[in-house]
Design goal:
739 residues, mainly alpha, four-stranded mixed beta sheet, 18 helices, 77% helix
């Protein structure tokens, strides 16, 4: 029932009800006040009665809804049962079709064959169980023998301890004390002698370091001052033109001025070769690192000055440490050969490593690389001897090559990295460049250009760019190490002399005691014999114990293997039995195909019948639910109308009990006016109030006629009828149906 229809019905009923209430009210007023009160009680009872009817209808509706839900669940269950029964029936039909005498005979034969397999597997399990039992017996015997050997070993050990105790008692004499003193003195002398040898080696190494440092001091300054690269004005001009506009024409002009590889060889020949630099050094040694980075930075800054730049590169211990760490992590550890074995089969720069390390240090990094310690002979790379001369020459040659032999695919990028200011290869963030130098395990040189900031500390522990000062510091450190080594050797030599004197004194004491008492010698000899015998017994018991332990281990291994074999046989038997059961079930299904088919057919038909019954029950429950819903709607409408009647009755009582005959005549006239003018209910109420107020002033002048009741009834009928209409239209409340 839609809302619009229910509103219309409620409004009509409201008008009719209002008419009846007015008639009752007129009769009540004509009678007594008591009758009016009775009418109010009647309308109140009607409201309570209709609300009880609503509650009962709601309960009936809820019960019907529960029945529908239950019936729906039964239909679903019955439908699922039909599906299962249908599948079972299809399987039974297929089984029936397969139940030929040939198939039954074949399945029966398969059962017989599988029974043989099961019997064989069962026999294998029994036999393996016997093997396990025998292995367990051997293992138990080996355990007993091992336990006995352990006890014998413990006894022999106790005998050794006893003999040793006796020997110690015999050696408590002065002779044993002297022997102990001699042993201790000899040990001390041996340690002192070893310390002296070690100290002498340290002195020798320190002296070699001083000699190496002195050679560096003598040669580095001269090499630094003489090993400079001077560029021609034409080269500088061509390079500036190219960097400003890297066109093919400017690149060709730069290549022509630079003269390519020929000029590189000419520069390399200018490197000063000094025999004093031919000392073997470690490229990762901090002092060597300092010398190399300062040497490289001075070469680069000299070039930048020629180019017209005033900002210089720097060198620091922190930058060198970062360079060594980067090369080890992203070249050595990753086996990253930047040039390869021929110069053309390398991997190139490790760009991912550069990105990762830049993120780690939170700075900008650029990398140049050169042949370093590697020379090219017949297209193959060979490692040169790592001397200071080789390292300095490698740096000099690399920087020269970056300037004059960097065409082709690199597009002069190495030269660009040297001569740009604030940027490198178009990347900003190089306002404070510090250089770190490192050599990878293949001998190639890496020049790492870092932008140093207060946050990354790469400019900390900066080196002085005065090479002579750095070299002199290296010599000073080496000389201090030599002095310390010499002092240590002197102390060790003194300790050795004291230890040797103690050995001589202990030897003299022991010789004197050995000639003093024959009894002491006999006791010592006896104790030593007992100790030797006990040690022999102990060694024999130990050998026996080890033999028994080995036998026990072997027996344990054999037992474990036998148990594993038993488990495998049991698994095989279980599999064979499962297959036999499957085959037997197949034979049973084929043999009883008719009975199985009949049972499946009956089950299917019963499931279909159950579904039909459940579907019928659902339909009946849905019909009952629809009836209950209709009854609930009607009860709710009736309850609403009862409330309207109750409100109208209260209004009528108020008007009738508070009016006189003159008031009713005035009210009747007002009602007639309302009826004529079609005003709203609020106007009616306002007019009634005005008539009541006028009663006191005009009571003596109003005529008293016998038509008062009739006029009042007419007014009430019109006004209360409109009240019923308004209440019916706006007092509707949509019912709530729960499901």
């Amino acid at each position: 029932m839609n809302k619009k229809k229910m509103i219309r019905l409620t409004a009509l009923v409201g008008v009719a009800t209002a008419t009846g209430v007015v008639a009752e009210a007129n009769q009540a007023h004509a009678a007594t006040t008591t009758t009016t009160e009775t009418t109010n009680q009647t309308t109140n009872a009607s409201v309570e009665s209709t609300q009880a009817a609503v509650d009962a209808a709601q309960s009936t509706f809820d019960t019907a809804q529960t029945s529908v839900d239950s019936a729906q669940a039964n239909v679903t269950s019955a439908s699922n049962n039909v599906t299962s029964a249908s599948a079972a029936l299809s399987s039974a039909i297929a089984n029936k079709e397969a139940a030929t005498s040939k198939n039954i005979a074949s399945a029966t034969s398969a059962v017989s064959s599988q029974a043989v397999v099961v019997a064989s597997a069962s026999q294998a399990v029994s036999e393996q169980a016997g093997v396990v039992s025998a292995a367990a017996s051997v293992q138990a015997s080996a355990q007993a023998e091992a336990t006995s050997a352990s006890a014998s070993l413990s006894s022999s050990s106790a005998n050794v301890a006893s003999a040793l105790s006796a020997a110690e008692a015999a050696l408590t004499s002065d002779q044993s004390t002297a022997a102990n003193n001699l042993s201790a003195a000899e040990s001390a002398a041996s340690s002192a002698s070893a310390a002296v040898s070690s100290g002498q080696a340290a002195v020798d190494n320190a002296q070699a370091a001083v000699a190496s440092a002195q050679a560096i001091v003598d040669a580095v300054a001269e090499v630094q001052s003489s090993d400079v690269i001077n560029m021609s004005v034409a080269y500088i001009t061509a390079l500036k033109n190219y960097l400003a506009n890297p066109s093919s024409a400017n690149a060709a002009a730069l290549q022509e001025v630079a003269k390519g590889a020929d000029y590189v060889k000419e520069l390399q020949q200018k490197f000063k070769s000094d025999a004093s630099l031919d000392v073997v050094v470690d490229p990762s040694d901090p002092t060597v690192q300092e010398a190399l980075s300062v040497y490289a930075v001075n070469l680069i800054n000299h070039l930048r000055n020629q180019y017209g730049l005033t900002t210089a590169f720097g060198a620091s211990a922190n930058a060198n440490v970062a360079a060594i760490d980067f090369v080890k992590k992203y070249y050595d550890d990753e086996d990253w050969n930047i040039f390869g074995t021929t110069g053309s089969d390398g991997k190139g720069h490790n760009k991912n490593g550069l990105d990762a390390y830049a993120d780690q240090l939170n700075t900008s990094i650029a990398e140049d690389a050169g042949s370093g310690l590697t020379t090219w002979v017949n297209g193959k790379a060979t490692m040169a001897t790592t001397t200071l001369h080789n390292l300095l020459y490698a740096v000099y040659s690399d920087i020269a090559t970056m300037l004059f032999d960097d065409g082709g695919t690199n597009n002069w990028s190495h030269a660009q990295s040297i001569f740009e200011d604030g940027t490198i290869l178009g990347t900003d963030g190089f306002n404070n460049v510090y250089l770190g130098v490192a050599f990878d395990k293949y001998g190639y040189a890496h020049y790492e250009l870092y932008n140093a900031t207060e946050g990354n500390h790469l400019g900390n522990n900066a080196y002085s760019l005065d090479v002579q000062t750095a070299a002199q510091a290296l010599l000073t450190n080496a000389q201090a190490s030599l002095a310390s080594a010499k002092a240590s050797l002197q102390r060790m030599t003194t300790n050795l002399m004291v230890a040797k004197a103690a050995v001589v004194a202990a030897q003299n004491q022991l010789a004197a005691l050995e000639n003093s008492s024959a009894n002491d010698l006999v006791a010592v000899t006896k104790a030593r014999t007992q100790l030797a015998s006990a040690e022999t017994s102990y060694q024999t018991a130990l050998a026996t114990y080890k033999q028994k332990e080995e036998a026990l281990k072997k027996a344990g291994d054999n037992l474990a293997a036998a148990q594993a074999s038993l488990e495998a046989a049991q698994a095989t038997l279980a599999t064979a039995k499962a297959k036999l059961a499957e085959l037997e079930e197949t034979v049973a299904n084929l043999t009883n195909a008719d009975q199985l088919l009949a049972a499946a057919q009956a089950a299917y038909e019963q499931a279909v019948a159950n579904l039909t019954t459940a579907t019928g029950n659902l339909g009946a429950a849905q019909v009952d639910l629809a009836k209950a819903e209709s009854q609930l709607a009607l009860a709710e409408d009736t309850a609403e109308q009862a409330k309207v009647r109750d409100a109208i009755a209260a209004q009528v009582d108020q008007q009738l009990n508070g009016s006189t005959a003159n008031d009713r005549q005035s009210a009747g006239q007002d009602a007639t006016s309302l009826k004529t003018n079609g005003r709203a209910l609020t106007a009616t109420v306002a007019t009634a109030s005005a008539a009541k107020q006028k009663q006191g002033a005009n009571q003596g002048r109003l005529p008293q006629t016998g038509n008062d009741d009739q006029e009042a009834s007419t007014m009430a009928l019109v006004g209360l009828g409109m009240l019923g209409m308004a209440t019916g239209l706006y007092g509707y409340k949509k019912r709530k149906l729960t499901k």
